């Protein structure tokens, strides 16, 4: 096993330079791949939405009588919640 202190200075500097070059090549490759992935994903999404547009869901309108009945039940619902809470504390 060779320790760093046992290597000649020129060889140590050469290995550090090679390590830095490999590090920047790796970082550049990953950055290039991720950038390409983002643009391809956005482009493919634009193509898909152009040829297959999303249909908007139909809005269902409720009758006015259903809304009026719902507002009258709020007091009953609140009373049931309070009763259940009191019952659970016993």
Annotate the secondary structure layout.
Layout: H1 9-51, H2 64-72, H3 74-89
Architecture overview:
The chain has 90 residues and is mainly alpha-helical. The protein has a domain at 7-53. The protein is built from 3 helices and no strands. The chain is elongated, with a radius of gyration of 34 Å. The N and C termini lie far apart (74 Å).
Summarize the structure.
This protein is mostly helical. The protein has three helices and no strands.
Helix count equals: 3
Strand content: under 5%
Q: Give the helix level as a range of percent.
A: over 70%
Identify the overall geometry: elongated
Spans of at least 5 consecutive residues whose pLDDT stays below 50 are none
Structural class by SSE content: mainly alpha
Number of DSSP strands? 0
Element-by-element helix/strand order: HHH
Distance between the first and last residues' Cα: 74 Å
Main sheet specs: none
> What is the radius of gyration computed over CA atoms, rounded to a whole number of angstroms?
34 Å
Mean pLDDT comes to: 86
Annotation keywords:
90 residues, mainly alpha, 3 helices, 76% helix
């Amino acid at each position: 096993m060779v320790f760093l202190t046992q290597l000649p200075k020129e060889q140590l500097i050469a290995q550090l330079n090679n390590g830095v070059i490999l590090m920047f090549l790796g970082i550049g490759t990953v950055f290039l791949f991720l950038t390409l992935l983002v643009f391809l994903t956005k482009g493919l999404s634009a193509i898909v939405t152009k040829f297959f547009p999303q249909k908007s869901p139909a809005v269902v309108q409720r009758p006015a009588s259903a809304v009026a009945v719902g507002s009258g039940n709020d007091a009953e619902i609140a009373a049931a919640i309070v009763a259940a809470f009191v019952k659970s504390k016993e």
